Structure formats: structure tokens, C-alpha cells
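Review box. Two proteins, two foldings.
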Amino acid sequence: MKMPTGPRFAALALLLVLMMAATRFKHFGDMLHLPDASMAVFFLGGAYLRRHWMFALMVVLAVVLDWVSISYAGVSDFCVTAAYAFLPLAYAVLWYAGRWYAPKLHGQFRPLAGAFGAALVASVVSFAVSNGSFYWLGGRYPDPNVAQYLARLWQWGPLFVRTTMGYVAAALIVHAVCARLAAHSVSQHHHQEA
């Protein structure tokens, strides 16, 4: 897939920024709160936007949103520990997995299934990085041990990965529909010229 440029790049970047801002913290209240899309945003950003500076910008956005939510929206700072420094690495796993897969991403089923698989693997690794750093380096658990870590990994991992994959699946469906519409439009244009 060719990397979008100009207005398409700006529109995709804005859409991903809005997705993260709308879901990162509960500013609309519990009834309207959508699950955090940040992990999916990083994978999709890598797949569609690809630029390194966009990755850095999205990391800064995530940090700013966390700061605003803790400072002004009453969100707990429980997760902000020394391990917070590992979040860029966790997000990089997602971004660069998306960026790696991007050239293979097209509107057909196989490439879309491959993108889903790449996102799944990257989500698992990313969660292991963020959760592992929090557990082992966050100072919130007085006697960390492997058994407790694995239990907590199993407790929280499926929820985070499932949420990420739900957003990625929705995005890939939109991608497939847009690819189909674009192909149909080109076909109609060629048919009219003939």
C-alpha cells in the first residue's frame, strides 16, 4: 500500500489523534466511555502514516492526554511510575509492526488477515512490555514473583489485546470497503472511457 500524502495523510492523522483523544480517558463520563484505542492507534499509525516524526508526535500526545486526565479530570496516577518510561517502547512495537506490514497491506482478504495477525502479535508483545515493566519496575508490588506476574498478565492481557484487536478489525473492514469502492470507481471510469 502506498503511503498517503497531502490531504489524505492529514485526514488519517487527524482521525487517529481524535480516536486517541476520545478514548484515552473518561472525559465523557462512564456511560459514553469507549475502551482506550491507544494501542490500536499506534499500530494503525504505523501502517498508514509510517513517518518516524508522527510516531514521536503520537507518543507526546499520549503523555499530554495522561497528564491532562490526571491533573484536571481526576484520573488516578496509580500507573504513573518509573515503568511509565517503557510506554514508548511498548508503543514502538505496535507502530513499527504496522510500518513493517504496510507494504503488504491491500484490500484483498489475505493481506488484511495478515495485518490482523501482525497486529495481534504486536499487541501481545506490546502489552507484555508495558505490563511487565509496570509489574517488575513500578514499585507497586512489594514481593514480585513470576507466578504472580503470570497471573496478572493473564488477568489483564486478554482485555487489552481484545480491545486493540476490535479497533484494528474495524479499521481493516473500513480499509477493505474503501479499497473495494476505489476499485469499483476505477473500473467504472475505464468502462466509460471504452
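Next protein.
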Amino acid sequence: MAAYLPPGWPTGVHPPGSQEFERTAVAWLLDVVPPDYRLYGVLRRHPVALATLARHHLAACIEGARQGYRTARAELGDALPVHGLDAVLAAYRSEGSRLVTTARAVDLVARALRGEVFTPQLRDAPGQQGQSLDQQERQDKAPAPGRQRAR
């Protein structure tokens, strides 16, 4: 029976428990972080540490992209034509989406490196994994159906 891989599992990383899992996970994680991280042998020897650093690195990148998006009009509005500013905002949206997807994949790999076994879940239905982090946060904060938020 083939190992179950949850939605968002990174391409190229072998399933947890396979002979090549740790090697492919480390190679993929090293591609996620800045190149200088390859200089630290401890990160190759301890993949959980590498996954933790990758998680923090991506969290900072996501926050930076969000901050850049929020301030782009004020910072660049006088320096760029409208179509240029629109293109910058589109780049922030695209990169932000890529970063969030990568952060989710890093989380999955980190959990697998810690020994978590994944099993199919009802919430793994199509359409769930494609939400942006902001959409997911809004959904998580939304009141339960039939209930209103306190004012």
C-alpha cells in the first residue's frame, strides 16, 4: 500500500518512512532557505532544525511581503506609473501566495520529520488547500453558522 501524502506535500520529497524521505526532505528544505544555510552542517545532520529555520524564514518573508503590499502605494505611488504600481502589487500577491503554499509544505515536512503519520481526512477535499492564508484566517475567525459576533 502506498503511503498517504496530504494535500500540499512538496513535489520531489519522498513519502515519510521511505528510505529516501530524509535525504529528499533536506534537499528540498535547503532549496527553500537562503543559500548560505548550506554552509551549516548541523542543519544537514538535524533536519528538524533545518525545517524549523525554514519555517521562521518563510514567516518573515510572508510578513515582509504583506507589509510591502500594504505600503506599496505610499512608498511607490509617486515613483511609478499606475500600471507599474499595479504590476508591483500583482507581484506581491503572486509571491505571497507562493510563500504561503511553501510555508504549508514546510510545516508538513517538519511534522513528518518529527514522526507524525498522515492519514486521509475529510477536510482534505478538493478546494480546501487552495485558500490563501488570509482567507483561512478569516474563515477561522468567522462566527459559527447561526451565531453572531459580540459587538
